[in-house]
UniProtKB/TrEMBL annotation:
This is Enamine deaminase RidA (YjgF/YER057c/UK114 family). Belongs to the RutC family. GO terms for cellular component: cytosol. InterPro entries: RutC-like_sf (IPR035959), YjgF/YER057c/UK114 (IPR006175). GO terms for molecular function: deaminase activity. It comes from Kribbella jejuensis. SUPFAM superfamilies: YjgF-like.
Amino acid sequence: MTIERSNPEGLHATPGYHHVTRVQADTLVYLAGQCPLQPSGELAPGGLEGQTAQVITNILTALESAGATPDQVVRTVIYVASSDRSDLSAVWDQVNASPIAAAFTTASTLLGVAQLGFPGQLVEIDVTAAL
């Protein structure tokens, strides 16, 4: 498996992610959007920070179950139910300071959205890995 990440000349500088991720792999792993739900099915407490921490835990669990690690992630999409840029930045900072930080050096998108699937849900992250 080969993963090449680059920022081509002529595109803007990024805050840590790469514009282009090129992958040659035998297996791709697509995670469902990871929500801030605890194993009990209850929404994680602690507002945006607590929910983001639960999503990080869920991503680690899902990646491990597939035999993947954060450095094998080739695409992420982060959804934050907020129009406040500081909320989006807080999630970006939290994931980049977490055990899954390597997953966000690849092709990544960060979006503020009107709402997510579960009542009270503030964050969700979609992840693709290559093995």
